[in-house]
Amino acid sequence: MVIESLINDIRERYSLDKYKAERAIITAPFGADYFHECITRWDSSRAIVEFAKNKKALLIIVTSKDVPIEAINGVKDYIVIQADEVPGWRSEYTYLNRLFKWAIPFLFKYINVSLYIDSDLHITNHPNKIIRLFDTIKNHKFCVTEHPLRSGWLEEIDAIVDHHYLCYDTLMRQKEYYISCKMPAECPVYQNNIIGRVHGTLYDQISLEVLKQVNDHSERDQLALCYALWRLSLRPFALRLGEMLYTRSADSSRKVNMNRCAFIDPYSWRFSTYPIRPELFLNAETRSMFFAYVRFKYGMW
Prior knowledge:
Elements: H1 3-13, E1 21-27, H2 32-43, H3 46-51, E2 57-64, H4 69-73, E3 79-83, H5 93-102, H6 104-107, E4 111-117, E5 121-123, H7 127-140, E6 142-146, H8 153-163, H9 168-180, E7 190-198, H10 204-216, H11 221-232, E8 237-239, E9 242-246, E10 258-261, H12 284-298
């Protein structure tokens, strides 16, 4: 399968060249429940609501055909694209998400800068920080969230095994392939739930390589990105330490969990093989005080 040809077919089928903007926020919730949850999160996000008022910006949701048309018609501020199964690509929703997530620079050629956000993230940041984030993306071309817990790809392999995220045999084949390629153990892993890209740059090759790895091995795009960055000798700009509301609950009545995940980095630094992570060495009480200080200092309330 030629990834570029597959992406071009999608772009033509859904007439994606008509979407033109300086900036866009894009997400891809596949499944009706995920779509409804995404709409709820976006509608209740002050940052998203303010972003929607920008005439030079777009908010795009790519979703599946099982979302009722009446739900689509009820959406006013966002562009909703319903995608069918893609010939030559696996039909599971997880794989379709990965395809649209990583193909964004090629699918939306007339959008200059995009911010992909996983649909289960609720942006609680001040609207001005969205603007600052887009400025960061424009300056650094490719930005991705640093993993809050793991620093290397072999640690990610161990975590996948521990949490049964993937068939063990499939994972081991992927691991052995990367070892056979002599990919260094210290290659860093990123969380990938937020990706900022300037379209039409050398960094677009990262997306193609990630999709090739996903197609050849598994849907674990964290591992695919590790390999792509190493193979292409490219380095991302790491986004760190922000506040978001995060939940995977399909039941909106359940209590929403508060987790910290990367978003805005008020003191971000470039790629480092051994990133300095002082907050990981603090005990629970001191860590709480540390994050409270950061929220106060950088206005993350």
